[in-house]
Recover the amino acids of this structure.
């Protein structure tokens, strides 16, 4: 859990500088940590949905507002490790 404590220390600077979070509640007394391993910008993509083009990449606006989710505004591919601590007896 020492690594998770380190990730937790990054939560306040990450929120202030980027608006992202590294720690939060997973509900029912559980604590959850997110540790980003990689972040790669997506500058162009050719994608379709049911045969229709999705268009150009664009900033994520409005920001994600569900659950414990947060994403940077610029499109990207991210590798994230999620750890959930379950309370004793849970």
């Amino acid at each position: 859990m020492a690594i998770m404590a380190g990730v937790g220390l990054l939560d306040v600077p990450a929120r202030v500088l980027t608006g992202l979070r590294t720690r939060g509640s997973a509900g029912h007394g559980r604590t959850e940590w997110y540790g980003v391993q990689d972040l790669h910008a997506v500058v162009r993509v050719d994608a379709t949905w049911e045969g229709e083009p999705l268009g150009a990449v664009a900033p994520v606006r409005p920001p994600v507002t569900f659950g414990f989710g947060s994403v940077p505004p610029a499109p990207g591919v991210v590798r994230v490790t999620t750890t959930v601590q379950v309370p004793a007896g849970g």
In short: Strands lie at 23-27, 30-41, 48-49, 52-53, 76-85. The chain has a mean pLDDT of 81. Residues 2-85 form one domain. The two ends are 17 Å apart (CA to CA).
